[in-house]
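Complex 325.
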Amino acid sequence: MSKPKVFITRRLPTQLEQLGHIATIEVWEERQPAPYKVLLKKVKTIDGLLCLLADQIDQQLIEAAGTSFKVISQMAVGYDNIDIPAATARKIPVGHTPGVLTDATADLTWALLMAAARRVVEADRFARGGQWRTWEPNLLLGPNITGATLGIVGFGRIGQAIARRAKGFDMKIFYTSRHRCDQELEKVLGVEFTAFERLLQESDFVTIHTPLLDETYHLFGDRQFELMKQSAIVINTARGAIIDPEALYTALTSGQIAGAAIDVTDPEPIPTDSPLLSLDNLIITPHIGSASLQTREKMANMAIANLIAGLKGERLPHCVNPKVY
Ligand code: NAP
Ligand code: GLV
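Predicted structure with glyoxylic acid bound:
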């Protein structure tokens, strides 16, 4: 019997040996994602797809998959690029990689929070730009982090990992989420559950950790920025479209908020002519939340484990749509 065929949409930071024992592997070797047309053609002839968040796995693509197509395995925890109802309708399980990237993403979030507060990127430009003449009492001042109030929007794996870091900085920590978490856990983490509006009004730093869903699309718009302190700093390492980019631009240029740091943009990558790129009070990183060496290897291995299970007709270890079983 011939081996099942799999398509992997980019070179992965791990070995493919184990997968190679059971499947014929084709890897898209380019740095840019495979064009949609290529994916559309591929899914007709393969048994499994290992994809990334930059691949658009929509209803048309899922419906075009051949009859032997068994599994979609995404190397990411977020899966807003995949039409899950369409996959479920075809009984195709979708795998993802939760947990292994929690700390790396929380670390990057913390780096952005600290960099935005203490103006690290501006200061680096200043020093390299030959402007450093002397020690100045008023040079590049920013707010305190220690003892400040932090608002965490979305209190799942990454949101809670942020609270653990904030505790070490003696912060007052608010969170809002769809469900209140266990009160014992609240005590351990030293957090207070509160309404979204109050969190916006009282926080010095607001950090976003919800998935991108219909109800979180542009969750941050003009009204939300207006509610915030003028000294507030917003950090987004979740998904770009949770913030309305025009509202962010207005808030940052009108002084409604003091600064922002974002690892994700809408659209992604950020267009080179975006007005946001001209702002000194905004830090932008190119979606590198999980980009530690160890984390990316774990994510790749987890995605391969999901893929192999799907090819064998076994339950995926980390399945987004268990309704298929
Ligand atoms: P998670 O454990 O599922 O946590 C998400 C949390 O958001 C859940 O607690 C959920 O609440 C809450 N939530 C959902 N809708 C909400 C709403 N409307 N308002 C407030 N809270 C809401 O996911 P995670 O592992 O922490 O990851 C979170 C997101 O981060 C991912 O979906 C992904 O998009 C992003 N991410 C980005 C990077 C990066 O490289 N920048 C890396 C990893 C993850 P309930 O549990 O009550 O539903
Ligand atoms: C990264 O953004 C992820 O969802 O894993």
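The CA atoms of residues 63 and 86 lie 8 Å apart.
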